[in-house]
Amino acid sequence: MPSQLIYGNDGIYRSPRPPLSLPQDPKFSMIPYLFRNLSSISHLPALVDAETGQTSTFSVLRTQVLNFSKALLDLSVSKNDVVLIISPNSLLFPVAFFAVVAIGAIATTANPLYTAAEISKQVKDSDPKLIITIPPLYDKIKHLNLPCIMLTNSTTPSNSNWYNSSDFINKTSLNVLLSDSDFPPVHQDDPAAILYSSGTTGASKGVVLSHKNFIATSMMVTSDQDQAYGEAKNVFLCFLPMFHISGLVAVLFAQLQRGNKVVVMPRYEMEKMLRTIEKYKVSHFFAAPPVIVALAKNQEVVKKYDVSSLREIGSGAAPLGKDVLEECAKVFPQTALYQGYGLTETCGAVSLENAAASSQHSGSTGMLDPGVEARIMDLERMQPLPPLQKGEIWVRGPNVMLGYFKNEKATKETIDDEGWLHTGDLGYFDNEGRIHVVDRLKELIKYKGFQVAPAELEELLLTHPEIKDAAVIGLSDVDAGEVPIAFVVRSSYSSLTEVETKDFIAKQVAPYKRLRKVIFSEEIPKSAAGKILRRELRHRFLSKL
């Protein structure tokens, strides 16, 4: 059994990692924390554009943030006003985000691939005072009749409703004139961002995250770095979207506050990513499971590039099977591969495997991050469960959101009176204190009273050498209640049949878990975070009936 440190008599699992030491001054909010060590790192590169090589040092980044903040104040953006940022990854995205939170305003981010209708829905809910975007996206937001700041380093045609960031962002003389007294007082408990959950299992909700949430999470996800590398600086690649919790917090804010260099790509493309790793000697990157699967299945492509600088690759957003991790490890023999677990509601952090430990590729998402507590709850008896028993994962800690924006009912349904956030995820702890995330509770397939986890079948399907990607959903059935069916993307050379795919799974699982139907598809629809959009798959299937 695990020690009392990990699992107590009170049914609470605790982190074996060293405890967090959060800043005690309530006024020590995100931006003071971000630049707290500026005197020793001001000359070091903070952000690098992967395509152009353009570089911003920490000193330049701070100057740009202050200048942008001053422009926001001049445009009458006040504390607690909401500002929408809708843009792909760039060197200016973090400048805009940090400038918004520096003055106590609240940043809400949106996927630049959203349609005008989807953007309008988020605008209606969050009620922003101003939009920060790029010129190519203007047609999607012009109907909203809100003032805009265009993220651009060059002159663009004038427009009565927008301002160019280039007009103020590089005016270094402003830096001399600005001081903390120019900005509204900002506290750790103040809201910093409203990030919308992916909505894969229901309506998307605005998650309100505080300055303390960001600071705590940044400390959590870099705690192992501090042990493994001391004061040494690392080079992180960021192709995860900055509008998403993983790119924004785990990569951008967390790594910059530690003094690491962040190399920015606008989006993921395998060979561009590999070229960037080679060119900038990237040491770390985080990715969603589809990227890990693609790397594992394209070993010949990886071998064309020098990726010897890579020390660690982290995966999150959805469960990743042990077999896939081991296959990918063969492609990167000098690199530690590990998984983490988090939600937008926990500012992206709950647990993380220790890349320096010997127990990699366990199929778990590692041990709890420092400062995080957890319970595994039996929902029928409402009792906490010991190791090796599955239940709903509940978590508590300084990274847990303030609540859902303008949705008190949903907040009370998710965070109880003791501060436990009910994740909606099914999982368990093993005897070593590692957490295993099985699936979303709402996505479990109920076959004649048995529970079938789609993620388990997806993991098995991805071990087939002729399957590039796969997703499993449950569909209503008169006799069984629900039956599992699979959507499969075959390799280009494959002639794999439905019968062969069913047999491949049937040999490895109990009868109630067998696939009842296989549908071959060109691609699996996924969110920006890499989560399978099961509702869309279900709609595709039903529309063909």
Automatic annotation (TrEMBL):
<feature type="domain" description="AMP-dependent synthetase/ligase">
    <location>
        <begin position="45"/>
        <end position="405"/>
    </location>
</feature>
<dbReference type="GO" id="GO:0005524">
    <property type="term" value="F:ATP binding"/>
</dbReference>
<dbReference type="GO" id="GO:0106286">
    <property type="term" value="F:(E)-caffeate-CoA ligase activity"/>
</dbReference>
<keyword id="KW-0587">Phenylpropanoid metabolism</keyword>
<keyword id="KW-0547">Nucleotide-binding</keyword>
<dbReference type="InterPro" id="IPR025110">
    <property type="entry name" value="AMP-bd_C"/>
</dbReference>
<feature type="transmembrane region" description="Helical">
    <location>
        <begin position="235"/>
        <end position="256"/>
    </location>
</feature>
<feature type="domain" description="AMP-binding enzyme C-terminal">
    <location>
        <begin position="456"/>
        <end position="531"/>
    </location>
</feature>
<dbReference type="InterPro" id="IPR045851">
    <property type="entry name" value="AMP-bd_C_sf"/>
</dbReference>
<keyword id="KW-0472">Membrane</keyword>
<dbReference type="GO" id="GO:0050563">
    <property type="term" value="F:trans-feruloyl-CoA synthase activity"/>
</dbReference>
<keyword id="KW-1133">Transmembrane helix</keyword>
<keyword id="KW-0067">ATP-binding</keyword>
<dbReference type="InterPro" id="IPR042099">
    <property type="entry name" value="ANL_N_sf"/>
</dbReference>
<keyword id="KW-0812">Transmembrane</keyword>
<protein>
    <submittedName>
        <fullName>4-coumarate--CoA ligase-like 7 isoform X1</fullName>
    </submittedName>
</protein>
<keyword id="KW-0436">Ligase</keyword>
<dbReference type="GO" id="GO:0009698">
    <property type="term" value="P:phenylpropanoid metabolic process"/>
</dbReference>
<dbReference type="InterPro" id="IPR000873">
    <property type="entry name" value="AMP-dep_synth/lig_dom"/>
</dbReference>
<comment type="similarity">
    <text>Belongs to the ATP-dependent AMP-binding enzyme family.</text>
</comment>
<dbReference type="Pfam" id="PF13193">
    <property type="entry name" value="AMP-binding_C"/>
</dbReference>
<comment type="pathway">
    <text>Phytoalexin biosynthesis; 3,4',5-trihydroxystilbene biosynthesis; 3,4',5-trihydroxystilbene from trans-4-coumarate: step 1/2.</text>
</comment>
<dbReference type="InterPro" id="IPR020845">
    <property type="entry name" value="AMP-binding_CS"/>
</dbReference>
<dbReference type="Pfam" id="PF00501">
    <property type="entry name" value="AMP-binding"/>
</dbReference>
<feature type="transmembrane region" description="Helical">
    <location>
        <begin position="91"/>
        <end position="114"/>
    </location>
</feature>
